[in-house]
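Key idea: predict the complex, not the pieces.
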Amino acid sequence: MELNWGLILATVASAMAAVVAGIGSAVGVGMAGQAGAGVISEEPEKFGSVLVLQLLPGTQGIYGLLIAFVIATKAGLLSGGSAITFDQGLQFVFAALPIAFGGLVSAIWQARVAVSGIGLVAKRGEESGKAIILTVMVETYAVLSLLISFLLVNGVSIG
Amino acid sequence: MIVPMKRLTLIALKSDEEKLMHALQALSAVHIIANEPSQESAHIQELENDVQRFKNAFLSLKRYAQEKKGLAPKPEISAEQLRLKLDEALEDCFEYETLERELNAVRAEIEKRQALLKTLEIWRELETNIEDIKPTRSVSYMTGLLESSRIKDLQLPEGAAMELYGEDKGLRAVLAACKTSELESLQRSLKEAGWIDFSFPNILGTPLENIRRIEEEIGQLLKEEAGLAARLKEYGKLRDEFALGQDAASVRRDREKARTELLKTNTAFVLEGWIRSDEEEKVISAVKQVTDIFYADMRDPSDDEVPPSVVENKKLIKPYEAVTNLYSRPDPRGIDGTPLMAFFYFLFFGAMLSDTGYGIVLFIGGLLYNKLMKPSGMTEGIVKVLIMGGISTAVWGVFIGTFFGLDWNVFLGTPAGTFPLLFDPMVEPMSMLFLCFGLGIVHMLFGVCIKIYMCIKAGDWAGAVFDNLSWIFIVVGLILFGLAPAVKTLGIGMAASGGVLVLLFAGRERNNILKRAIKGAGSLYNVTAYLSDMLSYARVFALGLSTGVIGNVLNTLGGMLYNSFGSGLIMQGIAFLITAALMVGLHLFSLGINVLGSFIHCARLQYVEFYGKFYEAGGIPFTPLGYRTKHVKVIGS
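Result:
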C-alpha cells in the first residue's frame, strides 16, 4: 500500500502545533497556578488578579490550536483529506515550527514572569496591573510566532 | 490635562485639630505631607488592629454562614452614620471573635481526643488496667507494635511470653512479658523483629473503659461544637455590619495617622499639603466653618518640589486615565498622555478583537455591569474603556472581521466577497498586515510630533529639529521611497536630509568633529528601533486572527456536535439545547480570553511604542485624606 506522505505530514504539522505549544502552556499555567494557590491561601480576595496572571501563559496553547486548526482545514483533514503532495506536507510541517517552539519556550518563560508577578501581587496588590504588563511582554514573541506560522500556512498553495 | 497644584500651609489651634481633620477628611481635597516621620505609636497600632479584626471576622464568617451574592453597588452611608456605628460594630466583632475562639478550642479538644482514641483502639481487648502494666520484682512487661507478617517467625527467649491484640495498618499491638533477668535478651530478639515501643498515655483503667469515656466526651464536645457553630451562623446577618465596621475603622485609622504626621507645638499645629489650584476656595471655606482662628498660605510649587500629579479630562477620555495609571502617572511638569492616547486605544482595541458579535456582547455586558455594580476608581475606568472598546470592536468587525466567528456572508446570506466591507484578513493577510503597519506608523509619528511640540514649548529648538523632526523625515521618506515610483526621488531626498541632520547634529554637544560624527552614526542606527516598533503592530493582526479563528473553531465543533445527534424532532431538539448551551459557554470563554489579550496588548502598544516617544512618567498619585472605603460608599452629610 502506498502511503500518502503529504497527508501524513500535514497531520503531523497540525498535531505538532497543538501539542508542542500546548505543552508549554500546560507547564506554564501549572507553574503559575501553584504560585497563585499560595497567595490565595493567605489572601483569598486576590483571586481575581492572580487568576489573570495564571491565565496569561495559557494563550500559547490556544495559538497552537489555532494554527493546528488552520492547517487541518486547509489540508482537509477534518473531511477525509484532500490531495496533498509531499512538498506541501513538508511545507505545513515547517510552517508549524514557529508557533510550536516559539509557543513552547515563550509560555514557560512567561510563566516564570507570571510567578514573580504573583509574588508582586502578594506583596502589593494594587500593582497587579504592572505585573500583568511585565508578563505580557514575553507573549509578544508568541504572537509574532503565531503570525509567521499563519502567513506560512496561508502561503501553501493547494489545488 | 494636568491640573496645577498649590502648596498649602495651614496653622491653627490644637484645640481645633480634631474637628478640622474631620472636616478635611470629608472634603477629600488635601494631600497631607508628613512633617513628622510617621510614628508607629501604640495608639495607631491599636486602630490598625481594629481594621484587621473586622477584616478577619468578615472573611471567616464565610465558613459559618453562606454569603448571598448578587450584583449590587456598594451601599451608601453618611460619614456621621459611619462614625456612630463603629463602636457597636466593634462590640459585636469582639463577641464574634470570642465565640470563634471557643469554637476553635472545642475543635482542638475533639481532635486531641480522636487522636488518643486511635492509639487506644488496637488495645481494646487488653483487659488489664493500664496502670498495672509495670514491672514487678521478678517479671518485666513490654508494650509495643510489631509488623504482623514477622510475628510468626519471632523466636522468644526462654521464659518469655507475649499476647497479641488489635491491628492497624499492618502493625499488631503486642504485650510481652518475661523474667526480669531475661529482659535484655527479649529486647534483643524483639528489636530484630522490628519492635516499636509503645507507651500508654497517663490514664487509669482498662483501654476499653477509656475508649468508652473518650467517646462519650467527644459526643459532648460535638454537641458543644454544633451549638457554637449555630450561634456563629447567627452572625451571618451581621456581615454587613462587619463590612461597615472595617470601613469605619480604616477611615478612623487614616485620620488619626495623618494627625500624628502634623508638626505640633503646645497650642498650635502646622499642616502642610498639596491641593488642586481650583479647590483653594473649597478648602478655605471648609476650614472657616470650623474656626476663625487660623493662618493659611497657598503658593505655587517651587522648582525642587514635586507635587502629586492630578489629571482632569473630558467624560469620554477620563476612563482611559486608568490605562495610563496602569503604566505610570505623568510627571506633573510634563504632559498628560491620556487625551492623546485615548483615540488610538479605542482604534487598536477594536481592530484586535474585530468581531461584531463579541463587540456587542462586550458593550451590553459592560453597560449592565456598570449600571448594577456602579464601580469606582480603576475598575470604573477599565469597565468604561471596555464598553467603548465594544463599540469599536463591533464596527471593526463589519470591516475586517466576523460575527461570533461566523463568516459574514454565511451569516447574512450575502454573496461571497460582500462582507467584510474592507477585506477579509484570512484571505488577504498581507493587506491586513500593511493596514496594521500603516496605522502603527501614524501612531508612532504622532508620538514624535508631540515630542516636537514639547521641545518647542521648552525652547529646545535643536532637540525638536535634530532629534525628532529628522526622524519624521527619515520614516516618511523611506515610506514614500517604497510606496510608488512617482515619489521615489522625493522620498529618498527626504530620508537623506533627515539622515544628514541626525548624522551631523545628534552629537551636537560634542565639539570634536570626529566624536560628533561617530555619535551621529550611532544615532542613525536607531532606525532599527523604528523598524521593530513598526513590526510590533503586527500583533493587531495576530490578535484579530486569534479571535476570528477561535470563534470559527468553536462554531465548527458546535456543528459537529449538532450533527452527531440523530434526526427526528426530539433528537434535534435535544441537540439544539445542548449545542446552544455549550456554544454560549465556549464563546463567553473565548470572549473573556480575547478581551484580556486585546486589553493588555493594546495597552502595551501605547506604553512602549507611543509613550516611549514622548511621555515623561513618574508622577506620584494624589492621595488626599479622605474616605478610602472598601465595602460602603460614604456620601456627604
